[in-house]
Amino acid sequence: MTLLEVVLATMLLALVAISITSVLAFAVRTNAEGKRTLGAFEVANRLVLQYLDNKRAMPQRGLPVEYGTYRYLWDLSEQRVEMQMRRTELRPGASEIPTNRFRLLTVRVYEAQEAGPGVARGDELAMLTRLYDPVGARVFRNKDVTRRIGEDMEGLIDVINDLTGTPESVAAPAPAAPPGAPAPGRPGAPGAPAR
């Protein structure tokens, strides 16, 4: 064997080793990225279910949600959807479901990146969108939710608002003052400015 053949054989062996190492590194990186994305979709799915069960129990926005070894930030948006019915689909005499009570819920999950003292949004890893009827989702989705709605006055008010089409931003009226008490805002009334 000549020196040239030894050098060529060594170079060929080095190229084969580099190729195998590159393929293995790519497979490991793809697997890690797949796990990170799968975790993001799992977090998005859990957030959708939590929102449908009890939106007041959602995790605080802006704080990372941990799933395994990964940390994610999330964003949620909800908008009303107006259903358009064709005349051929309407049956005479059938009771009509209000077509404006449906909602489109969208959850986006981002990679949480360390940014100084806080956490910043990284790349968007998952987005789930669900079209739902708030009354059906809160009352008929499963027995646990139905039972919880019956025990929770705020949840019951939400269902009534959804049934009647009342916006959620409408606050309940303030309790009436007892007879003989000064009206709110007048001197001597609770909550009135001091003079």
SS summary, helix count: 4
Helix content range: 40-55%
- The tally of beta strands, per DSSP, is 4
Task: Write down the overall geometry.
Answer: elongated
Overview features:
four-stranded antiparallel sheet, 40% helix, alpha+beta, 195 residues, disordered C terminus
Describe what you observe in this structure:
- The model is unreliable at 169-179 and 181-195 (pLDDT under 50).
- This protein has four helices and four strands, in the order αββββααα.
- The chain has 195 residues and is an alpha+beta fold.
- The longest helix has 51 residues, at 3-53.
- The relative contact order is 0.10.
- The termini are far apart.
- Helix content is 40%, strand content 23%.
